[in-house]
Design brief:
mainly alpha, single chain, elongated, about 0% strand, about 100 residues
Length: about 100
Amino acid sequence: MKKRWQTEPISDEEDAAITAAALSDPDNPPLTDEEMDRMRPARDVMPRDLFEKLTGTRAVFVPAEVVDHFKTRFGPDWEEEMRDVLRAAAQKDEGDGREAAE
């Protein structure tokens, strides 16, 4: 299973310096809490075909009980584990000589 890239947390001083720099930029002020609350994921607001083309991904609808199983069993890395299972199934299918259904 692949692990997510992680960084060390920044110090309070680094955070203050970054915040001060952002607040001093008149052309690109930080988002307000209200603006952040209104934000939605790109996959929810973009046309599906465009999102898939830009990200190289496909939207797949998975039953809730399957998602719950992966979340329970694999925790925060559940999505990567699900991708690994799907990749393995695709590779196995390619190796058994069967034609994939279109």
